[in-house]
Amino acid sequence: MHRVLGVRDLVLLNIAAVVGLRWLSTAAQIGPSSLALWVLALIIFFVPLALTVLELSSRLPGEGGLYLWSKAAFGDLHGFIAGWSYWTSNLVFFPSVLLFVSGVFVYAAGDRWLPLAGNAIYNAVFCLVALWGATLLNIVGLSRAKWLQNIGGMATWLVTAVIVLSGVWAWYRFGAATAFTQSNVLPHIGSVNELTTLAIIAFAYSGLELGPILGGEIKDPRKAIPRAILMAGVMIAAIYIAGTAALLVSLPTSQIDLIGGIPQALAAVGKRIGVPTFGPITAGLLALSQLGSFGAWITGTARLPFVVGVDRYLPKPLAVLHPKFGTPYVALLIQSTVVTIILLAALSSATIHETYSILIDMTVILGLLPLLYIFAALPMLRRRATADTKGIMVVPGGAVGCWLVSGLGFSTTLLAIVTSMMPPEHNGHPGLFFLKVVGGSCLIIAIGLMFYVRGRHAQRREAIHFRGSHAADNVE
């Protein structure tokens, strides 16, 4: 593969991949305590994740990222589970991102298109066009596909600036729409909704591990990846905290919609200041920023089955590169086909909001499972390494610092996985919710284990055949 990504591209990739402005609405729905949860998740999850990825990516900078780290620390099976869970989490996640974009895009025409928000046909057509358009861009190469990510990263900054500035303006002119008191700013960890939101917020901070997956296509990855993570990390935290605060200032908590919260808030500010086009314009920019995020994830996750496919645990065609563009086009096509099936199946069996919530919770479980592996891999690989740390971004604090970062990140991730299994407080069918979320996640992992066992048997047969052929040649 060609090395076409520099530090600037990686910074924008990290912003586009990590920052999901859709999480602002999710967080703001529980009120001012969400601000404290952003800070808490920053300390107990994001910082440990950044430090872990910095050391592991500089220690093992090759293509594959978390798959390579898990495999090096715990062996082939666990490397495969980490890679499979990470890849399939995105196959579940992609439909929710696309549904968010389609739900936001209807606000771009003001009130005229709002009835389409709950229309399954509109959502299906919009999502499929966006999905396959991004797929084709990635097939023709990163040199072209990276423009979608870069534009998405820039649009994310622009929309965030608009959200924050409009919140400041609304507070200055009209006062805060949400009351901020000491009692409602402090989180109530005993609340199921706040625990579930903390899990989603922790997941919202994940994504720094995506860049190292593209190690084979990054210019000087040992230096570029750490620099990009440090630069992007500060920007990501600022976007989330300031953006959520701005939403709460612009709209009362009770009026913030799970999908349309941001365009709702901006439209409300626009009407107050006498600029009715303010909401629609920013809704279009928000949709563009989320398409950039979607493109970034397609770019990275399509290469994960490529790496696993090289090790012959998955069908061999996944490892085939396009003869002209040098991209894993078979993996991209299969990935988008599976996403299409999941999307259409989900739209046919539930409402848009219910589908969105179930897909998010499944994504949290499958997406955070691989992070358990990399947090556990940090002290394992540190212990096996040589004393020479030249060129390696070592977690500070020696062995104690290493175990502290690993333990804190692992515990937070495990808590987030467990709490994401809990049905919402006002869910009418908690048993069915649990079955869909947990049962669906377990089924996906079981399918992966079937592929692994099949691949191992195929490897053994090839090894026996090779030894038999070699012995026959020696006899002759």
Which characteristics define this entry?
Amino acid/polyamine transporter I; single chain; 18 helices; 476 residues
Question: What can you see in these coordinates?
Answer:
The protein is mainly α and 476 residues long. The chain has a single domain, classed as Amino acid/polyamine transporter I (Up-down Bundle). The chain contains 18 helices and no strands. It has helices at residues 7-18, 22-28, 33-59, 66-74, 76-105, 120-139, 142-174, 182-185, 192-204, 210-213, 221-250, 261-272, 278-301, 303-310, 329-349, 352-384, 398-420, 430-475. Helix 3 runs parallel beside helix 9 (192-204), helix 4 (66-74) crosses helix 16 (352-384) and helix 6 packs antiparallel against helix 15 (329-349). 53% of the residues are buried.
Task: Describe this structure in a few short sentences.
By secondary structure, this protein is an all-alpha fold. The protein has one domain (7-475): Up-down Bundle (Amino acid/polyamine transporter I). The chain contains 18 helices and no strands.
Explain the layout of strands and helices.
Blueprint: H1 7-18, H2 22-28, H3 33-59, H4 66-74, H5 76-105, H6 120-139, H7 142-174, H8 182-185, H9 192-204, H10 210-213, H11 221-250, H12 261-272, H13 278-301, H14 303-310, H15 329-349, H16 352-384, H17 398-420, H18 430-475
Domain count: the total is 1
The CATH topology is what? Amino acid/polyamine transporter I
Element string (H = helix, E = strand):
HHHHHHHHHHHHHHHHHH
End-to-end separation in angstroms reads 41 Å
